[in-house]
Amino acid sequence: MENFEKLAALGAKGVxxxxxxxxxxxxxxxxxxxxGGIDAxxxxxxxxxxxxxxxxxxxxxxxxxxxxSRGAIPIxx
Length: 77
What we know:
The chain is about 75% helix and about 0% strand. By secondary structure, it is mainly α.
């Protein structure tokens, strides 16, 4: 795994950024439009509720990426 730690860290950080981009796309997709759909209050509620899911997923991947970029911790024993 030593050879792939930096690549795995980069991938995990990429997933973190990509999930935030996916959240922005989702919020744009469910926006209120003049021809109907949801109102502005419901749009804000949906955006906040979906951020909890996407934000936690992004935070977890950012943390995994940080741990992988630090490398293995040697165990003395």
